Amino acid sequence: MTDERADGLIELVLPADTRLVRVARLVASGVATAAGFDVDEVEDLRIAVDELCTALVEGGDGSPLLLGFDLGDSQVTVVGSTNASSGAAFEPDRLALSRQILAVVVDEHDLHADHGQISVRLRKRRTTARDD
């Protein structure tokens, strides 16, 4: 069977509403499946995207969430950003929890707020090479 997976960037803009985070999780699931992730890897990416979006909503000023899903060779990179609320600073305990969760479910992550923006970046790699 040949690999007919398409590489590329998928962009998603969502209102800063926690009820719509499920849309981002569905996109993450579809992208992970297209990347050849197994069931556990798909779920890990869904959890990471949920955490990413929650951090953006909680630290943001209500502006839309800008998300990008980059489907690469055996990996998915997700970036997200929004405008920070005035004086945005993540609660230290909440930030520590987000970082702990991301450390368990993805290979790389970065979460920060500066210059009036909150930015999150994560990368999940497929753990096993597959001959599709």
* Spans where pLDDT lies below 50 across 5 or more residues: none
Strand order of the largest sheet: 1-2-3-5-4
> What kind of sheet is the major sheet?
5 strands, antiparallel
What is the SS-derived class?
Answer: alpha+beta
Keyword list:
single chain, 132 residues, alpha+beta, five-stranded antiparallel β-sheet, 3 helices, globular
Explain this structure to me?
The chain is of the alpha+beta class and 132 residues long. Helix content is 37%, strand content 30%. The protein contains three helices and five strands. The protein has helices spanning 21-34, 39-59, 92-105; strands spanning 8-14, 65-72, 75-83, 108-114, 117-125. 29% of the residues are buried.
Question: How would you summarize the topology of this molecule?
Answer:
Elements: E1 8-14, H1 21-34, H2 39-59, E2 65-72, E3 75-83, H3 92-105, E4 108-114, E5 117-125
Antiparallel strand pairs: 1-2, 2-3, 3-5, 4-5
Helix pairs in contact: 1-2, 2-3
What would you say about this model in short?
The protein has 132 residues and is an alpha+beta fold.
